Amino acid sequence: MEEDAAILPGPPGRISVAGGRIKWLGTASDILLAYRVYRRCGDKLELISEVPIQGDNRGWYAFEDAEHAHCRHLVSALDHYGNEGQRAAATLE
After folding, report:
1. Which of 51, 49, 60, 63 lies closest to 21 in space, CA to CA?
2. How far are the Cα atoms of 28, 33, 35, 68 from residue 9, in angstroms, in the given order?
3. Could you give the number of structural domains in the chain?
4. Is 2 a domain residue?
5. What's the whole-model pTM score?
6. In the 3-class helix/strand/coil scheme, how is the chain assigned residue by residue?
7. Chain-centre distance of CA 71, in angstroms?
8. Residue 57 belongs to what domain range?
9. ∠ at Cα 76 (71, 77), nearest 5°?
């Protein structure tokens, strides 16, 4: 019998970037620990920050990466069990 697969957290909503400022809307999930912010410059993908959940996780979050505004940015959710959801790419504002 197959073991139950972990249920991964969904990506945050409305991820956008403008001038190196990445922002996204919290998912309102009560099992999340943090959001992870990644930077992709060329072929290199790098975890650049782990932003802790605030309050009820219903508000906006932001992270500044102005020196690397030309790179692509992605955000994922991390739950209390250590499961990381799919990375979602920021769209240009």
Report:
1. 63
2. 11, 11, 10, 27
3. 1
4. no
5. 0.90
6. CCCCCCCCCCCCEEEEEECCEEEEECCCCCCEEEEEEEEEECCEEEEEEEEECCCCCCCEEEEECHHHCCCEEEEEEEECCCCECCCEECEEC
7. 15
8. 13-92
9. 155
Tens of pLDDT, residue by residue over 23-39, are 999 988 889 999 999 99
CATH of the domain at 32: 2.60.40.10
Structure token pair of residue 50: 């782990």
Tokens describing residue 85 = 């959801």
Q: Which residues contact 1 (CB under 8 A, 6 or more apart)?
A: none
